[in-house]
## 1
Amino acid sequence: MEQWTGVLRLAVQRKQERTVLAEIYNQGASKVTPPIYLDNSGLPCFYLLNLGGGYVDGDRYKTDIHLRAHAHMLLTTQSSTKVYKTPKVPVIHEMDIRLEQGSYLEFISDPLIAYRDARYKQETAVHMARGATLVYGEIITPGWSPEGALFQYNRLQLRTAVYMEDELVVFDNLPLTPKARSMDGLGLLEGYTHLGSLLVIGDEVPRDMADTLSEGFGAADNRCRIGISALAVSGFSLRVLAMSTLQIENVFEQCRRVVRKHILGGRTVSFRKY
């Protein structure tokens, strides 16, 4: 039997005009808040918690998220994800997300902070039905070290696979190894310190949304570099290079506002963390 430091299973379902909790199970260091309704839309927000305050050597986490048909949900973390020194065994986090027909998930994590000599591997698999929508965002910081030097972690690897009706439609493999290769290099961070990635996928996402957003980014903070690409399926992939978390969050917020207005007909809901 596999040993996990933390296990979380969370499922929601549509009931009348609201999305409500259908199933919850947690074990070890993984917890989640009760549903919080931030406005009158009937759309709940859940905050993922880590009781240990961060990941340490050899930690292994398993997270399963399930949105049943026509359920809508916001998901985020309570605070930044901290990966401490891992001298022997890297931290592993496996995440499975299942979106049934007509469901809508916004999952925006707080920044990932890897401490000196940290190693972390995240495997995310998303299984979507036709008519489901996914908004999935992550931010990677330059990490932390006692002397204040940046990029002192050993390795971060974030792999995300998205399946539409069991067909692989998106595969994103992002390895960062600053001890082996300078982050200033071409095709890496090129002088920036923070990296943001956002995926938006769904049949209801207009084919021209990437172009519309790209035009809007022309007037955005010029301290960022933003790349946006249409996918083979309806949706787009976004990368942001910046000098702070806030700059990336502002770009993500701009995207979320457009997506929610088009698909849900509503305003963007703040996670109200600060």
## 2
Amino acid sequence: MIVAAGGGGDAVAAAMLDAALYGGDDRPAVILTYAWDRLLIDPVPGPRGPENFTGLRSLTRSVWTVPADAKPIAPAGSTLPRLAAELPHTFALIDPLHGAEGITRQLEELVEHLAPESIDLLDVGGDILAKGDEPTLRSPLGDALTLAACCQVNAPVRLLVAGPGLDGELPAELLADRMDPATLTLTAEHVEPISSVLEWHPSEVTAMLAATARGVRGFCEIRDAGLPVPLTDEGPTVHEADLNDALNRNELARAILATETLAEAEQHSREICGYSEIDYERNKANWLDSRPEQKIDPEATLRRLDQFEAQARDRGNTHTTFRRITEALGLNGKQRQDLRALLLRSRPEQYEAPLWRFT
């Protein structure tokens, strides 16, 4: 069983890790993950619970799986049903509605029901190793909840960090003394099982993890803020970290150990970190709702792309993500795939899968 610490792209990375560590095909892992896609996919802020889907299947009293025919209830969106359709893994839903205690209960039920040979808690980027006061930290809540729960379950859990620094939150050099030396370096062969998923999934950090495993190097501009992330030889590495050390360091995870609601955990995040990432999503969702939708005019879009690329190169970047291009050109999440299709049709030589390379 692999617990995707922050949801979103961590679930895709979990499938890659399953292939790298366990073979993946014969006995694919159960991946326990949030349904927490960013606003490009899900216009509703925060994570989704079972009540936001139709077609879920009960696995235990508190845990539901997301099969391929499940559907998020509008206006919510989710990548999990499509992941279930394209990958052989079972995707079980983390429901954070009842705080860390609720997630702990879900883990305990799964351990009793599945008797898994191993349990890995996977975080891509490494912000799960944060203290909580780092100025570059942006999304601590989901990781803190899964860390708090995994530390309370009555079963051994191994904490793994893939692609240290790739999430743009904590730099790799800061994380170096918080984890063991690399136990694995991902390669293009490990990416192959999820290659079709990378063609549509919006996760920036997992895209960069896969790109570095394929040998891409440089600087990748991500997010709406245009954050530069170095793509180095450290990018495709996987490290083990001590679970208890991570909990002792992570002030937010310790504070929410006994929380019984998501709102309670959010309030701790505001007090300790100075913000809640769900508040950020709420504010951004209101801003996105107020913007008129622009049509994709091919000629005008490519001209604006040229301007964006020139500015990004001047900032020292060599690559970017389709999510970043979508937001930089003022388009909405529903238009991301149409924009991607236009770019691949017009300038296929710039596609360094799954990233966009500046010429």
## 3
Amino acid sequence: MVKEHETQATIFNDSWSRLSWVEDQVERVRRLAEPWTLLANHARLTTAIDELATNEGHFEFEVGVHPTPELPSTINFLIGNIVTDARSCLDMAIDAIWRNYGLDEHGVQVQFPLEDNFAEKRVNSRKGRGLRTFIDRLDDRFVEVIERAQPNYAGGMLDIPANLSAVFISKLSNANKHRNITPVTLQTVLTSSWTNEPGLKLTVLDADMKQGIPPLRFAVDYDSAIYSGRNICEYIDELGLQAPTALQINFAQRLIVDRQEIPLFPPRFDGAKIEWRAELDDVLSKVPAYIRLTLRNLNRVHSIIEKGTGEFYFLDSNSTL
């Protein structure tokens, strides 16, 4: 099936070419990161009992995880390129519109707007003067495409924006801009610890201090009328074997784009900031899809304008959740 943008004249050739380069880099990162993306969701554990803090009815022990090799450094440079080039795809498309339609550049930044508060800036005279000037010079149909591409907060428990890709591109590319690398790291964090066995109580001793990052200390208190110290040693040893045990401790591992925590500002929290970490798979899958969808919609509007008709058309819906 021939892609729509290849079947008609377009002013966005440079943007499509840059997007192809983004997608090539994405595939390179996928290949490089595959040994780590194929790791089990739960890390393999190591355990060590603290004999000095052990007595009848009480054991203390440390849980760590088996180390994995370092990720190839090439990934870090490629991720910086991906987000910076993704931003360039959008900016080049706006520049092409400005040149093709002979729009006035005075007093505006000819770049694709990515705003946490796009709707507010459209009506707020103090915050949105530059944005409104930009919008006033564009055909309303292009403005609709741009508005759809903003980080749209739709409500819900956490109120995560539908176009989270727009936030990734804006925040990560601003942090990078080819001035430094954007590191990808394997993050391992405690996700759960419990026991349902009668006479056993499992406690995390230092999760608050370390925010759940191993190694962490645990205590297990037990009813010595039901269990022996040998039983408890076996339960702790079995954690390292990932065998079914009376004690359950899980550390999740995932690849994180670790340039910075990405700030979100959900309206339902009255502007309070929520920090969000971008997982590598989010960036690799959602960012190219978001760029492709946005360019396709810009191209569709351009085609309708060029025909000089009021032909009815649909814009593609967001597919980058």
